[in-house]
Specification:
184 residues, mainly alpha
């Protein structure tokens, strides 16, 4: 994990230099946001969740600004969804339920927009099902959580029926199905 953090720190330092050279450069701003996100993930993975959260929130803020300027920038929107998801996970680990739920809701809204734009894209539906499950796990409201669990399970079952479940995702399919079954 330390090697990963060292690599992300080096990537971040390079991105800071690029962005400082030309603050108007959209690519440099995007790279810096991505570097903040990856640095935060590395910090959180090495036990520095507070630093990780700060880095990921910096990334999220930059990604929000980039997305506001160019709403069609799909890469930034995907990175933003991942930042929201990371924030949700860290806030959940801190026991900050409301902040965790808010972040997961933001991630879910982005994932839903991706599916709305490409309703037959298997990867987008997979990520939506995953986002539904993460939010459901954070919710204290069992009724709302079960609604999301059933929706997630439905998507996973459709993907499975279509043959669009990667071997690495098999556990998520089974887990979603078990959790949805517990709601009935």
């Amino acid at each position: 994990a330390q090697a990963m953090l060292d690599a992300y720190t080096k990537f971040h330092d390079t991105a800071v230099q690029m962005a400082a050279t030309d603050p108007a450069n959209a690519l440099a701003r995007h790279q810096l946001a991505l570097a903040d996100q990856k640095l935060g993930e590395g910090q959180a993975a090495t036990g520095h969740e507070d630093l990780g959260l700060a880095s990921i929130e910096r990334a999220r803020d930059a990604q929000l600004a980039i997305a506001a300027h160019d709403p069609a920038d799909q890469n930034t929107r995907i990175d933003l969804e991942e930042s929201w998801e990371d924030i949700g996970a860290i806030e959940h680990d801190f026991g900050h339920t409301a902040a965790s739920i808010a972040a997961y809701r933001a991630a879910l809204a982005l994932r839903q927009s991706f599916v709305d734009e490409a309703p037959h894209a298997a990867m987008e539906r997979r990520d939506l099902a995953k986002a539904q499950g993460l939010l459901a796990d954070a919710l204290p409201d069992a009724v709302e959580a079960c609604k999301l669990r059933r929706a997630s399970d439905t998507i996973w079952q459709q993907l499975d029926h279509e043959g669009n479940v990667a071997p690495k995702d098999r556990g998520m399919v089974d887990q979603a199905h078990r959790k949805a079954a517990g709601c009935r």
